[in-house]
Structures are given as C-alpha cells and as structure tokens.
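step: validate -> pass
step: tokenize input -> pass
step: predict -> running
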Amino acid sequence: MPFSNLPKSDPSRIKALQKAVSMEGYKENGQLVLSYQTTLDAQRLLSKFRHFHTQYRQYYTQFVKTGKAYKNEANVARMYVSHFIRVLNMAIQRGELKKEIKEDYGLAPDDFTLPSLKNEAEIEKWGRLIIAGEEKRISRGGVPIYNPNIAKVKVYWSIFADHYHTVSGLKTNAEKYRQELVQMRPVVDDLIHDLWDQVKNFYSELPMQQSIDKCSRFGMVFYLRKSEKKQLEAEKLQNFIEF
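step: predict -> pass
step: emit ->
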C-alpha cells in the first residue's frame, strides 16, 4: 500500500476528521468500513479541536491586528515614563528635591538607576506609580516637575494603558487556546492514524489503484514510491490487455 502522511497542520487535521465523520455508517458489501466507536470518537474530537482552533485564530488575529499601533503606544509611553524618572533623579541629585520623596513614586531613595521598562507590564506599573506619586507630591504643595510635566506623561501613558489590558487579554486567551491545541494534537493524530489504518486494512485486498480510490474518499492522501508507480503502471497495462 502506498505511503500516506498524517496531516501536518491544524486545518488539515480538522479536514481529515470532517471527512471521516462525513463517511459515518458507510458500508461496503454490508460491512462498516469505520467502526461506530471510531466515528463517535472522531465527532467528539472534531467538535472540541475545531472550537479550540477557531478561538485561537480569532484571538490571535485580533492581537496581531492591534499589535502595531499598540507597540507604538507602548514605546511612546516608555519614553515619557523613563524621561520623567530621569528628570526626577536629576532634580534630587541637584538638591532641588529630597531623595525621600522617591518613596511616593515606588522608587528607592538611594537608587538612581532606571527601573526596568522592557515589557508592557513594567511600563504600566511604573507609569501608574509615578503619576500617582507626582500628583500626591503636588497636592501637598510641591512644585511640579516640568519637561515633561506629569500631565503630558499621563496623556501618553493613559493611551497605552487603555489598550494594555485589552491586548494582554487577547494575548493570554490566544496562548490559552494554543496550549489546548498543542495538548490535543497527539490525540487527534492517534485517532486519524487509527481510522486510516482501518480504512487501509479494509481495502487492502483490492488492486492498488482501486484501493487508493476507495481510501481517498475517506480523506487519505497517498505518496507513491517508485516501485508503487511501476506497480500502478503494470495494473493499468493489465487492465488494458484484458479489455
């Protein structure tokens, strides 16, 4: 029997299961080609696997769609937050402000290095802290820091923060369904392998071309080796002679 590869992508896995389910109850000479249990298993897995795949594609597509604009918003917010912290540190180092006020911003008084702002969660956290800290200091009568002032920082940070939770949710959900697919793939592949084996065994006594044609109705795709191509040619020649 020619070689048939298992599906390599999730859409092709879904297609293989759909084809098997569509052949439910199919008989040859009064005999079921696929067992009822195999068909039931295919129906169950198809419904679950297709749901996970659809959800993953939806969340991932939305995440990618918003990604470019969101990345730009994050970069601008990072720039303003880091610039504000630098200006705050310089004001303290010049003696214009006391270092103890840094605690209001969530910063260590004696540490003048910038906190990490590599990822979106850190930008969201430090933007929120320095905005709250500066507003608290100003409410006590402190002179606002300028260039940039906190109002401008807040504008750009808020634009980013408004999308942060939405985008984070899309990313989290996409990853959740991706992991579900990863866990299900071996189970789906095992079932497809089993049902294809049932089909191949059922038609194994037929001439090769007939067997291929019958099996293909169940979604199987064959790859002929050189020897099998020669065998098919021999079968065709024999049929021609008999005709």
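step: describe -> The chain has one domain: 3-242.
step: cleanup -> pass
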